[in-house]
From TrEMBL:
Function: Probable S-adenosyl-L-methionine-dependent methyltransferase that acts as a component of the wybutosine biosynthesis pathway. Wybutosine is a hyper modified guanosine with a tricyclic base found at the 3'-position adjacent to the anticodon of eukaryotic phenylalanine tRNA.
Top-level taxonomy: Eukaryota, Metazoa, Chordata, Craniata, Vertebrata
Keywords noted in UniProt: Methyltransferase, S-adenosyl-L-methionine, Transferase, tRNA processing
GO biological process per UniProt: methylation; tRNA processing
Stated name of the protein: tRNA wybutosine-synthesizing protein 3 homolog
Top EC group: transferase
Organism: Engystomops pustulosus
EC number(s) per entry: 2.1.1.282
Length: 99
């Protein structure tokens, strides 16, 4: 089982990117967290922007390897019923079943 939750703010227009900061094609990260994002932290990050800024929230991601397709189908039904609309089942070439 692998799970990740994250939210971040990044600047789209960075005039002088800092080499010590993680870069993403013409962007510099203003604020990144895997914890609850407080309003004060977001505002502090936005004050570092030299241009436009975008708030991006990455929803909860969970990967589960199931022993049988029936197990994956059951778990998939629970996920859909719980509101996780972007859920799916993948069967790999070697028979790995990932939900």
């Amino acid at each position: 089982i692998c799970a990740c939750v994250s939210s971040l703010i990044y600047s789209l227009l960075s005039q002088s990117p800092d080499a010590s900061v993680v870069q993403k094609q013409n962007c510099s990260w203003l604020f990144v967290t895997h914890d609850l994002c407080r309003k004060e932290d977001a505002i502090s990050g936005l004050q570092k922007a030299s241009g436009d800024a975008v708030l991006k929230f990455e929803p909860f991601v969970l990967h589960v390897q199931c022993r049988a397709l029936e197990d994956a189908q059951l778990l998939h039904g629970v996920a859909i019923d719980s509101g996780f609309r972007n859920s799916g089942i993948t069967v790999g070439k070697k028979g790995k079943i990932i939900m």
